[in-house]
Structures are given as C-alpha cells and as structure tokens.
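Moderator note: this is an archived Q&A kept for reference. The question asked for a predicted structure of one protein chain; the sequence and the answer are reproduced below.
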Amino acid sequence: MHVFIKMFLFSSLIFSCKQKKKQVVVQDPVPQRAAFLHLINKIEHSVPYLSQTVDSAWLNNLQKNTLEQISASTGTIEFFRLTYPIVTGIKDPHFKLALSDDSASVIFEKNKVFPLKLYVGPDELYVKKDYRNVADKIEHGRRILSINHLSADQIIKELSAGIHYNENEQRFFYSHLERNLNELLLLLMDYKNEFVVKLDDGIEYTIEGVYKKDLKDKDTVENASYRFLTTNTKKVGYLRLASLVIEDDLSYYDNIFNDFFAQAKNETIKDVIIDIRNNYGGSTRVIRNLLEYIAREKYVLAKEAFYDKETGKPEVRSDAYIYPSKNKTPFKGRVKLLVNENTFSSGHIFVSVFKFYKMGVIIGEPGVEKTIISGELKKEVFENVGTELWYPNSNFLLNGYKRNKVQSVLPDYMVRQTVADRINQVDPVLDFALELIEKDR
C-alpha cells in the first residue's frame, strides 16, 4: 500500500527560496542507462529539500558506480538489483522502487516466493505464523538459522544492500523487510521455488514456495477501532489508528471518533490512549478531525515546500492556523499517545502537532522521519526496464523545524517493544501507559 499525504492548505502565503530547480536532459544511447539516468533525475529533482535528508556525495558516488554496471544486456531483475540500494538508501519510504505491473505479472507468475511470513530482528529471523505442509509443521516463534544454507544474519546483510542504518533507521528497515521479504528474496537473491530452512534445533526442512498471489499476508486490521481497558482503579479509553487512508469517505473515521469520545464523556473517563504505532499515514483530513477532540488551542499542521510548475523555483506555502470547531465537545481529560519507528507520513505529522502544542504525553520510540518529511506521491514507469519509481513531490516542514538542525520528534518516555515481545504478544509500551495512568501521571 502506497502512502499518500493530502495537505489541505488554507493560506495563500507563498514565498520563494533562492535555489532554482535544474532542468536536466537525460541522454544515453543505451536504453537501460538512459532509464537509470532518468530515474536519478526524478529523485534529485523531486523535492526542494532533498539535500537535508540525503547525503549528496553518497548519492553521486553510488550513481556513478551503478551506471558503470548497466549495459544493453541489463534485464529487469538485474536493473532492479542495481537500482534498489539507491532508492532504499535514501531512507525515505515515500521513495519506492517496484516492478512495473507487466513485469511483476510475468516474474511472479513464473516463480514461487518464500512461503513463510517472518519477524525480522537484529540479525535474526523468526516464524510469524504456523506453517504446515504435507509432512512438516513449523511453529510460530521458531528461530530460523538459515535459508538455502545462508545464515539469517547474512541474508539480512545481503538485503540491506550495503546501506548503513543508525539504530532507529535499522528498526524501520527491519519492518520494511518484514513486509517485503518474500519477494525481495527472489528479486535480490534469486531465492525461488524451493527452500531449505534450518531451524534453531538444527533440523533442516525443504519447503515449496508459493505464488505471490497465494501468499498469506498479515491479518486484516481495521483502520480505526476502540475499546475500553481497566487498570486496578481506573477505566481507560483506547483508540487504535492503524491507518489514515480514506477508503470510501471521511465518515468512517468521524463516526468512530465521535462514538469513542462520546462514550468516554458519558462514563466520565479521564484518561485515553491513542495508539498510532505502525501507522504509515494517509490523509491529514483524518488527523485534523481527530484533533477536533483534543486540541485546546489553534494550531498549524505544517508548511509545504514544492517546485512551482511554471517557474521551476522552490516555493513554501504555510497553513493558516486551524481552530478547533465549536461543534465538537473536546475531551477534557489526559491523553497518552503511543508511537514507534513506523509512525510515518501523516501519522508523523499528527505526532509533531501533538508534541509541539503539548496535548499530552508521548510514549514509545521516535519515528524514522524528523521535522522535515516528504509527501504527495507520483509514479514514473520505466517500461524498457520493467520498473517503476514512486517518489514524493513535496516536502513538509513540521512544527519545530529548524533549517540548521533537522531533528527527531522525541517521545516523553522511551519504551521499546522488541521482537521477543511481539512473538510472545507482550506490549510493554501499552503497559507503561497504563501504569502512568494508574499513578495519575
């Protein structure tokens, strides 16, 4: 699922930056090389503030080395393998490299992918769901030592494609692998059709792959849901936001928010928890509607930076102040917000507003994004190499952004849910929030 940020701007305040967007004409007699240069051009001229989030020297060096390896004989999978480190190394999932629909249909209909869904931890792989075939059963939580005789840590190293990640980026990358591991094993390592899996007891299993269309994805999770929890002495509202994507219309979220806060008011509940972990974004219209219930004062979502279509120059446009509607009854109690490295895109915008305007207490781990993010996705298809690039078209400067110091939006309490916690279905982040509430903090 691709993440789109829809920013609804209420001000015509626009001012120019000094830098002008360069117009680059991509020319190369070899179609594959021309496609690569065009892809790089799209990346370099996608958003005005790319240099604040990407090391230009690293990008230029990797671009040069990659171009030298591309020739007229470079096929679709090889092109993907060569280009993947550049797109992934930007460390912004708004940039995504994928096979084109036509290429994907051919490759994934011809080849079977790894059939198990896995947890990915620091140099380790664990089975996420029980797996059964005719003769064998591999249980949830079992550690995988190797696949096709390559150790788990070496597989993760191969899939990281030589990219260095700091600790927080690494956890986000592990989540990326969890979502895409099955197809990446095929595309990057040519693991397909049949797999030899060695478990932590030393026993090896030979298992058959499945076609990608038959791969069982994670359990379906509602975009939004709520329930009420109890501590020793208190009843607590718990609102889970798994996505901010508007499937049909905004009323889906409005009804849930209204019912949740109305019930909290009717039962005189003084504490609520909003859980926005593993939320990859969607529409800022959803977070604006949620803020109607918890914002105590006017606020600004972000400033948008983009290239003007006519002049090619960067422009920055600021949101006007947004005032909470008097038609909604604001929640007057205390709010705890749960976040992690996968709180992303418009979900991250919500966290920055919540933090900057001191709407409550944030618990968890910082998102991989900082006080400047990207959004407004576009897609470019490179037919002659069977590849497509998703890329952002705007930057968003969040509350607290400083040009000379781009920083993370830090939680008030740093609490981590480990892979072991997830395997054992333990949630120390939620438990910590409930403990604070029990202590009236």
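Archived answer notes: The first helix runs from residue 31 to 44.
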